[in-house]
Amino acid sequence: PFPGPFVSPGDPRIFDNTVVLGIGVPKKSHVNDLSKPRSSGDEWGAEILRRMMEPFGWKVETIYFDSNLSYHIDCVMSVLDEGLLAAPKGSLWTELPKEFRDWEIMDVSLDECKMGICNNVPLGNKRIIIHEGSKKFIKDLEKRGWECIEVPYSTIYGKIGSGVHCSTASIWREFD
Description:
The chain has helices at residues 43-53, 110-114, 136-143, 154-160, 164-168, and strands at 12-15, 18-25, 59-66, 78-81, 84-87, 104-107, 121-124, 127-131, 147-151. With 176 residues, the chain is α/β, with parallel strands linked by helices. A hairpin with a 2-residue loop joins strand 7 and strand 8 (127-131). The protein starts with 11 loop residues before the first strand and ends in an 8-residue tail after the last helix.
């Protein structure tokens, strides 16, 4: 096992006063087995982040996802808008924190997830900067009235696994 603690900029998903930290493991049975490798962040990093954020009124919750899809949660689950997430079915090994369990989760195909489509930047007001090349996910968003601003990221994502969200390091969103 690698020495920890670890937390990476691709591990948190930011909600209103809550950070949901994604920890990737390749099998659901590895969630409770700390001897198994984690994709990026780990439980010790989550605990340090929790202790740092608590005095400022923030909660840090942990979820586990399928690291066979990507090494960071920001490539597997996208926070699109208040009440709306996007992720492939079955990609989360554990439930979301209770305050987010009633949120709708738009399905993302495994192929589009693996091409980096969840690594996007919602701008608010149903506008999103998104990796070009998606067929279904962009159509699904447009049916909901979203404006999808497509950018050419397939070469970058294909070579180094870094998408639009990674490149902008945007961590704060205000939903109108």
